[in-house]
């Protein structure tokens, strides 16, 4: 039983970290959106300052870069929100070894693979539309590895749920 208590405390710590990450990501979305609006509204008067601060030439390119930043932040915020939902459900169940928890974790693994890929594709499209030369490399494929690991862990949790069910039937 001590191990289960440690798992629950660890999930609680993850819940706090995910909340912080989610809030930070959505603040990043708001700041990026505000930057896009400011760049559009004050194109001429603020363009020189933005170009000096960012090193990006042209207001159009600055808008494209800010939109890509917004897309990346939105993807991160959505992933944190989905992970937070899983962590809360696990804490409510009291154990990670449930069929519904395993299914939800498998879905989170798939979303962890797909959402960053979609965000990267959308960013590439925005960079092409805005003819931007500055493109940060924020996608490194780590989300694919994390997604696969989550899917594998979900299989282990499902097996644990099957063992729990078999033990309760005896």
Brief digest:
The chain has 170 residues and is mainly α. It has helices spanning 2-41, 43-54, 59-93, 99-129, 142-169.
Number of strands: 0
Identify the overall geometry: elongated
Instruction: List the uncertain runs.
Output: none
Distance between the termini: 20 Å
Q: Give the number of helices.
A: 5
Percent helix: over 70%
Rg result: 21 Å
SSE pattern = HHHHH
* Rounded mean pLDDT score: 87
Let me know the largest β-sheet.
none
| Secondary structure category | mainly alpha
Protein architecture, described:
- With 170 residues, the protein is mostly helical.
- It is built from 5 helices and no strands.
- The chain has helices spanning 2-41, 43-54, 59-93, 99-129, 142-169.
- The mean pLDDT is 87.
Brief descriptors of the model:
mainly alpha; 5 helices; 0% strand
Topology:
Elements: H1 2-41, H2 43-54, H3 59-93, H4 99-129, H5 142-169
